[in-house]
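User: Last request for today: this protein with iron/sulfur cluster, please.
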Amino acid sequence: MGNKIVLHICCAPCACYTYSELKREGFSVKGFWYNPNIHGYREYRRRLMTLGYFSGKNSDLELCEEEYDCGGWFKNTGVFIRPERCRSCYRTRLRKTAEYARKEGVNAFTTTLLYSKMQDHASIKSIGEELAAEYGLDFLYRDFRKGWKEGIEMSKKMGLYRQEYCGCIFSERERYNVS
Ligand code: SF4
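Assistant: Here's the final one, the structure of the complex with iron/sulfur cluster:
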């Protein structure tokens, strides 16, 4: 597999444990930010700035920021109810990650989404593997959820902004139970 990997980063708090684990395994990590699922725009900027702070503290983390294609996210998602909505969302973000890895000549990718206990872990794994096969890459599967508590402690220690909802407008509504 080689020791370079592209890590799709959904947010800085989820990157804490994931990134440190990959480094512990000897990977040289290229971070990739592509999250057009984050609504509204100020929330998006806040999470991106938090990642900027995190990468400033981890100077060996290379970071690529992809454009905020919010309109494309709505178009690709199509169905706005769970679980289809989340599967489309994972696919959109991981496809862009696979494209980036191929463009950069890195043959493996993974995602911080595998850290979250709130996400559909099995779907992320199967979509990652399916896209890896399509793009001729490896999808590095790890169950990063085992570091859930450690990651939270790391993010708190760094004083990172920790968001209250997953990202899309629908998840915000679900979080606050507004009818
Ligand atoms: S809840 Fe999260 S994973 Fe699901 S569609 Fe919204 S932003 Fe994407």
